[in-house]
Structure formats: structure tokens, C-alpha cells
Design a protein that fits this description.
Radius of gyration: 14 Å
Number of helices: 3
Strand order of the largest sheet: 1-5-2
Order of helices and strands: EHEEHEEHEE
Largest sheet: 3 strands, antiparallel
CATH class: Alpha Beta
Helix content: 10-25%
CATH superfamily: Gamma-glutamyl cyclotransferase-like
Strand content: 35-45%
Distance between the termini: 43 Å
Shape: globular
Length: about 120
């Protein structure tokens, strides 16, 4: 059947991974996804210094998800079905302030998300 890798992972994006330009540069294609949300987190500004990330996203300020634990805090976004190789590509795109963590979204879907490592419980 060849070397075609099948989806099987889920990746939640609340920021630049939703941009077509970032998806094309990071994954080589546009991703399909559905709206969902991440409970217990809020968005905070994140200054980007990595020139490669700025070039791909077109932005020197992104957002980062910070844990609050409050049920009324909710970050809207999109959950994408991706391959394990896509996850590796996303890991290379994300900056050091972010860490990939398995989360449960509002829908009950388990997914990877890039979160502020300094705020995790």
C-alpha cells in the first residue's frame, strides 16, 4: 500500500496553525478540521523572536494558552485530524515557550495542543 501515512492523531489549534500559509509551509497541504474549544485556559500574548516562525506566520506576536483551571475560561479553535508525521512537523514549527500536551476538548475529543509550559498544573 506504499508509504502513505494515515491520520490518527488529533491536533487542536487556537492560533497560527489555522492559517493557510502556515499549514502549507508546515504540512505541505491544507488541513481539515472542526470547531471545538479548550476549557480551563485563556489566551495571552507571546512575542516571537524566531525569524523563521515570523516569516511563515507573518506575525511577531502570537498567542499562547495559559492554564487557569476555571471552567468558565474557554479558548475556541479548530481540531484537525493529522498524521504522526504532521505532529513532528508541528513540533518543529512551534517555539520553545510552547509544549505539546494531550488535552480533552469541550466536545470530549482528546487531542494534542501547544500550551504555555510555565502555566501547566
Amino acid at each position: 500500500m506504499g508509504d502513505i501515512e494515515r491520520p490518527g492523531e488529533w491536533l487542536f489549534s487556537y492560533g497560527t496553525l489555522q492559517l493557510e500559509s502556515v499549514q502549507l509551509a508546515t504540512f505541505g497541504r491544507l488541513l481539515l478540521g472542526t470547531r471545538d474549544a479548550l476549557p480551563g485556559f485563556t489566551l495571552a500574548p507571546l512575542q516571537i523572536e524566531d525569524e523563521a516562525v515570523i516569516a511563515v506566520s507573518g506575525k511577531s506576536e502570537h498567542t499562547i494558552a495559559r492554564f487557569t483551571g476555571r471552567a468558565d475560561d474557554l479558548i475556541p479553535g479548530i481540531v484537525f485530524e493529522v498524521t504522526p508525521q504532521d505532529i513532528q512537523h508541528a513540533d518543529k514549527y512551534e517555539v520553545a515557550a510552547c509544549t505539546r500536551v494531550a488535552v480533552t476538548l469541550s466536545s470530549g475529543q482528546r487531542a494534542w495542543a501547544y500550551l504555555d509550559a510555565r502555566s501547566l498544573p
